[in-house]
Amino acid sequence: MDAQSRGRADEIDPADQWVLNPRTGNYELQLGDSAAQAQPRPRVGAPRRSASAPAAPTAPSPGVPKPRPGDGPPGGRRGGRSRKGGGGGGRRKKALLITSGTLAFLLVGGATAAYLYYDHLNGNLSVTDVAGAGTGGFKKDQPINILVIGTDKRSGAGNEGYGDKDSVGHADTTILFHVSKDRTNATALSIPRDLITNIPACPTKQPDGSTKTIPPVRNTRFNTSLGQEGRDAGCTMRTVKELTGIEVDHFMMADFNAVKTLSTAVGGVPVCLDKAVNDEEGSHLKLGPGEHRLEGEQALAFVRTRHGFGNNSDLDRIRIQQQFLGSMMREMKSKETLTSPKKFLSLAEAATKSLGVDSGIGSISKLTDLAGELKNIDTKNVTFTTLPVKDNPAEPEGKKATVVVEKSLADPLLQMIRGDVSLTEVEKKEQAAKEAADADAKAKQDALLQGNRAAAADVRVSVYNGGGPSGAASTTLNWLQNTKGMSKSSNQGNAPAKVGATQLEYAPNQADQARALADALGLPATALKMGTADAAAKAPMKLTLGPDFDKPGAPLGAPVPQQLPEDVQQAQADKAICAK
After folding, report:
1. Per-residue pLDDT for 26 more than 50?
2. Residue 95 has pLDDT above 60, yes or no
3. Hey, CA dihedral for 440, 446, 447, 453, is it positive or negative?
4. Closest Cα partner for 322 from 188, 209, 123?
5. 300 burial class (0-12, 13-18, 19+ CB within 10 angstroms)?
6. What is the DSSP letter of 15?
7. Which residues make Cβ contacts (< 8 Å) with residue 450, sequence separation at least 6?
8. pLDDT given for residue 92 in this prediction
9. I want to staple 574 with a disulfide (CB 3.0 to 4.6 A). Which of 35, 281, 311, 379 is the partner?
10. Closest Cα to residue 528, out of 416, 438, 435?
11. Each residue's pLDDT tens digit, 381-395
C-alpha cells in the first residue's frame, strides 16, 4: 500500500511520516511500516512510538534532504524552539528548493517532488512504449519538446457522469511544451482538439510485444489522434510533428483525476471571474464574479466548461485552461507550497498516480533528470499561446464545428518555436545585444563573400541532415556531384543534433570553398559560420541542412521572425487574468 492509503487506513497524515531520529536530533522521512509512526510524543523532543513497539531510528532514504536540528515534521510540530526569522531557516528552504525549483510546468513539477520516496512512486507511473515516435531522450545543449496530453477518458471514481462515459480517451487538451536551448524560457502551444488535420500512419506496441501499424487518416479531427482505432500517445506525437514541423521528445498524459487530485494536493487553485458563471448545460460550473480557490470537482468543472466564457467555443475553453495552468504553476512555486513537506508528499502521489509517460522518461530518476533541465525557468518566462486557426470553410454557415490552421499567423509562430525564439519580453536587452552581434557577424561574412571562389572540383564538404526533409542530405549530395561538379562532397546522414536553420561551418583557409558552395546552394551570409583556426589539408567543410531547407538550389526559407503577429493569442504564466 502507498503512503497515502496507509495514512488513510491508520488515520495517519502522510506528513506524519517525518520521524525524529534520537541519534541525530533531526526529523527524517520514514517510509517503512506505518505502524512505526502513530502515537504522539510523550514529551517535546522525545522519539515517537507506535501502539505496540518502539520506532526504530531509520537512516534517511536515498535522495531525501536531511533536515537540520530543530526542524520539525510537516504540520508545524517541532522538537525545539524556532530560531529568529522562523519558517525553518535557510538550509531547509534551500533543500526544498532543490525540488520545488523544478516546478517549471504543472505535471513535470508535480512529478519531480517524487524523489521524497523514489521507489514507491516509480510504481505509480504508467509507461508506454511509443514505438519510436519520440527522440527517446534530450540533449543538454538542445531545446526540449514535451507533449502534454489531457484525455477525456472517464476513468476513476466519480467521472462516469461526465459526458461520454464510454470515451476511449481522445486528445481533449494538448499542449506542446517547448523549452529553450538555454533553459531560460518556455512556450506552451495549445492545439485545438477540433482542428482538421492529417493523422500519419502509426506503429503501436501491442500487449504481446508485436507492433501494429494503424493506417493514416486525412482530414479528420486532431483529437482522434489518440484513442480512436487503438491509437496511443505516439500517434499524437507523430501528428504534432507533421502538423508543426517540431520533433517531440517525450509525452506526458493525464486524465480527469489529475485535475482533481493535483488541485486538491496544492490546496486549491486561485481563479478570477469577470462575471458570474452558471453552466447548467455542460460542466455544471456555478460561480459568482470575483476570486475563488478551486479544487477537486470544482476545478475539473472550471477547465471543462464550454458554456461559461467567451462565445462558448473550445478556443475560449483553451484560454481558460491556460489561465488555470498558469495559476497552478504559480501556486506550486509559492512560499506556502515550497515550505510544506505535506503538500510535497500529496503532489508527488497525485502527479505520479495520474501521470502516463513514454519509456524514455518512464522512471522517477529520468523525470528528475528532465526536471533538472527545467528548474531555472521562471513563470514570467513561460508563454501560453494557441495554434492560430479559423473556421473550417468546408462547413456551412451556422454549422461551424471544426477549424483549420490560419497559415498567415501560424507559420511565423511555428518558425519562432522551431528557431528557439522566446515569446517573452523579459530579455530585450539580451536580444538587442544578440542582434547587434549578429549584425556585426553578418557584416564580416558579407565581406568574406567578396573574395575568391574555389573551383567546383576543389570543394570538399560533408553534408548532414539537421532538420531538413527526409533524404535531404542524399538529394543534396547527388545534386552537388552530378549537377555542380563538386565530386569531393559526401553524405554523412543525420546530424548529431538538430539545427534551427541551415548552416555551413568552415575554417578561415576554406573561405574560397565556402564562397563557391554558398553560390551553388544560394546560401545567405548568415548561414556561413567561420571557425577561428585553419583546417588540415583535405579536411571537409560541414554543411548541416535545417528546417528552412527545401531542396538544393532553392532559396532557403525566410529568416526566423523575432516578433509575433499582433493577432496571435499569448499570455505569460506569471500574470493572473480574470476569465471573461
Report:
1. no
2. no
3. positive
4. 188
5. buried
6. G
7. none
8. 41
9. 379
10. 438
11. 999 999 999 999 999
The full DSSP string for 348-386 is HHHHHHT-EEEGGG-SHHHHHHHHHHHTT--GGGEEEEE
From first CA to last CA, the distance across the chain in angstroms is 44
| Dihedral, 570, 572, 578, 580 alpha carbons, nearest 10 | 10
DSSP 73: P
Q: Is residue 301 classed as helix, strand or coil in its secondary structure? A: helix
Chain CA centroid to CA 483, Å: 44
Query: Global pTM?
Result: 0.67
Place of cell 506505518: 34
The arithmetic mean of pLDDT across residues 5-19, rounded, is 42
Give the H/E segment covering residue 389: strand 389-391
Angle at alpha carbon of residue 95, lines to 331 and 37, rounded to 5° = 90
Helix (H, G, I), strand (E, B) or coil at 257: helix
Q: For the stretch 532-545, what's the b/e string if a residue is b when 16 or more beta carbons lie within 10 angstroms of its beta carbon? A: eeebeeeebbbbbb
Coil, strand or helix at 330: helix
3-state secondary structure labels for all residues of 336-352: HHHCCHHHHHHHHHHHH
Assign residue 561 a region (left: φ > 0; alpha: ψ between -120 and 50; beta: otherwise).
beta
Reduced 3-state DSSP string for 274-289 = CCCEECCCCCCCEECC
